[in-house]
Structures are given as C-alpha cells and as structure tokens.
Amino acid sequence: MGGGGGKSSGSRPSAGSQVEQQVRETEYTQELNQFLKEKLSEYNRRDSEAINRHVETLKQKLSAEIEDFVELKFGGSVSKHTYVNGFSDVDILVNVKGTELEDYSPNDLLSYFAERIKERLPDTDIHVGSMAVTVSYSDGTQIQLLPSLRTATGLRVPDPEGNNWSNVVRPLTFAKKLTEVNMNCGGQVVPVIKLFKAIQQSMPSNAQLTGYHIESLALNAFRDYSGTRSYQEMLKHLFEYAAENVSRPISDSTRQSLHVDDYLGAADSTERQRVAAFLGRMGKRLASADAKMDLTVWQGHFGDE
C-alpha cells in the first residue's frame, strides 16, 4: 500500500522546500546586512584632512586680533562618533575662557566670529544663528562654531535665544552613557544610529528627528536590549521603540535644556503624534520587506534605487 495519505502531504511543505526557504532567508539576511555595511562605509568617509584644514584656518582668524589663542574642540556627532558623512554638520566648540573675549555676550561673540570669518573667507556662505555661526564651504563641508565658556565641571553655551549663557552643560555625561550602551551591545549601537540618521532622510522633513534626539532614543532602546545584534534587526527595533516612545519628552542629561526634544512640544503634541506615525510606518515597511525578502525596499529608503 502507498503510505502517508493525500491529506497531510498536500498541506505541509516538503522537507526539501523548507530547506530551500531557509537557504533563501539566509541569503537575503546576508545580502541585506552586507548592503548596510557598505552604506556605513560610505557614511564613515569623512574628509578629516580638509576639515582639519578648515578648522585651523578658522582658529587662526578668530585669534588674530586678540592676545590669546581661542581653543577649538570638536563637539556634537564628531565627538560622539555618530557623524554621518553627507548628513551631519561638524560642530566646533570655541572656548573663549581666559581670553579678552570672555566678557562678550553670546550674541556679540557670534557677530565677532561672523565678521572675522567673512574677512578671511569673503566668498564663503556664513550664517549667524541664535547659538552658532555656520560656515558652508564649496566642498560641501558645513562647520558650526558654538561659543563656549569652559568651567571646572563642564561648559556654558549660548541659551536658545543667544542672549545669555546657559547653565553648566555636561556633554561628557551623555557621551559616557552612549559609549557604555554601545559597548554592551558589541559596538553595534553607534552604527545603527548612523543608519537611522541616514534612512530618515527618506521621510518628510517635518517627521525627521535631530541627531541628539535619535542618540537619546537609541540610548534607551538598547539599554537592556537582548535581541539579535545585527544592523537589520537593531535598526527595526530602534524604529519600533522610537514610534512607541517619541510621544513623551526625554530629559536632557547634559542639562543644556530641560528635554532633548523640546522642538516637538509637550507630551502627546500634534507634532509628536505625526512623527510617531511616520516612524511606525517606516518600521512596518522594513518588517514587510523582510517578510517578502525584498531588498529593494531597504535600498530605496537609503537612496539606492
């Protein structure tokens, strides 16, 4: 007699097809993570030589008419290693403590910086904001100069209006926490932050998060993370976590402001709900692409059509 019966053999995939499915899934996962690795390599390509040359020129000019040299130090994403080539600005802290510029107000310092730089770089685009002067070079580099006063426990920077100095800010406090979480996750958190910063460029500008906000969400999302440590799975986890938690403000551990995300308003604001919706949709698109093993969806969101 023939064995097995038609009912069970017709409703279950054969052992052979199960193996084929597993092979396809393995190949898809390998291809996707290789793609993400290549994108990271692209985002890490920072022209350090050109940036250092620009910074040295700025330092010499800002110090040219005073007795003491001002101190320029990398801050922001460069100092936290979350800089993304093509998307991140180069933030420079200009410490005027101990120089004759020390008694200037933040607004006066910003004007002083802009005027001196304009003398040295008359054809370069220079924008004066409330907290920093942005210098946009023809090679695509953007450098933001932020006046600061170094103190024994941290530093002071302009308040959001630029009229006064802030309370003492402790940027190293946040940087140390981020480093700790990154190390606990095998060094995968910082690369995933970079991928998040890049892929959100495919979202509407009013749904995109600031770099510091993304880093703060990642810090909380991966503090007790026990999932798969692949770029693919950790990026989806970050989108899911961000969609669920962006509605609540995050306290600023550096003390520069009350919250890292005040730009989105109060808890459950319309802006927060809009961002949460876009983040949620992005997370679902990526999950759907994985279910269909469709690499082109990921490539499209990273600008690779």
What report would you give on this structure?
29% of the residues are buried. This protein has 305 residues and is of the alpha+beta class. The N and C termini lie far apart (56 Å). α8 (211-221) packs across α9 (231-245), α9 (231-245) packs antiparallel against α10 and α10 packs antiparallel against α11. Mean pLDDT is 89; it is low at 1-9. The longest helix is centred in the N-terminal third of the chain and has 29 residues, at 15-43. 50% of the residues lie in helices and 10% in strands.
Q: Residue share in helices? A: 40-55%
- Unreliable stretches (pLDDT < 50, length at least 5) are 1-9
- DSSP strand tally: 6
Q: How are helices and strands ordered from N to C?
A: HHHEHEHEEEEHHHHHH
Total helices: the number is: 11
Compute the average pLDDT.
89
Radius of gyration, CA atoms, in whole angstroms: 24 Å
* Main β-sheet description: 6 strands, mixed
Structural class: alpha+beta
How much strand?
A: 5-15%
Terminal CA distance reads 56 Å
Silhouette: elongated
